[in-house]
Structure formats: C-alpha cells, structure tokens
Amino acid sequence: YADPENSAESRKLAETYLKKFGKPAAMGVFLSWISTRMLIEAANTVQSTKAGDIVKGLETIKVKDGNADIYFREWDHQLIRPVLTMATRASITDPLDPAEIVGRSPSDTASLEKLY
Question: Sign of torsion, CA 41 44 46 52?
Fold first, then answer.
C-alpha cells in the first residue's frame, strides 16, 4: 500500500481502505480491485458482458498499475505484470508496514514478456 510507484487510483484505494478499516488492505483486496478494473475495461472495450466477449476483451486491454501496464497475454492468458521483491525493514517503526520494496523486475515494461 505504500509503493511510491502506485498510481493515483491505487493510493486512493489504500487511503480509503486504511481510513475505513484501520489497517492496510490485504493482497486479496488489491487482486479483487485490479481484477474488477480489468473486467470493466474489457466489457467496455467489447461492449458486451457475454463470457466469450469478455475473454476477447481481456486479451486486448492493458491497465495502468503505477508506472507499468498489466495485461493478459493472448496466447496463454498469463497475467503480465512486474514482480516486486520485498525485504523486512531493518527498523520497523510502523507495525502495519514492516516490509520495503527492494526491487522491481523487470525495471522496464518492454522486458515483461521475457520475464514470463
């Protein structure tokens, strides 16, 4: 929730969730949120809510996640997105934020396909 590369939308979600529940959103919340964004984008792209059409839409859309585009690869439906490497902070001052991002792989969007 504290990734400096989070988009404005991601920061807003994190702030709203923290304010409402008093703790950061779990990974499942993020996955649900990004999945919903992708489904809505796909449905809007194909102008349909039929399952087969949605799949075709998901194969063509890209959604911004921070500085990267995330998307489903058409030929195998693999979700393509950067992978974060985390480490426990040397000094934990906030018990709700004990880890820090130490790496992002790949560092550029063009290398995503090679990673997967």
Answer: positive
pTM of this prediction exceeds 0.85: no
pLDDT at 109 over 70: no
DSSP state at residue 18 = H
φ/ψ of 99, rounded to 5, equals -120, 155
pLDDT one-digit tens code per residue, 45-73: 999 999 999 999 999 999 887 777 889 99
Backbone angles phi, psi at 4, to 5 degrees: -65, -20
Note whether 84 and 101 are within 8 A (CB).
Answer: yes
Rounded-to-integer distance, Cα 21 and Cα 25, Å: 8
| DSSP letter assigned to residue 66 | T
Under 8 Å CB-to-CB from 54, ≥6 apart: which residues? 39, 42, 43, 46, 48
Q: Please give the average per-residue pLDDT across 40-46, as a whole number.
A: 97
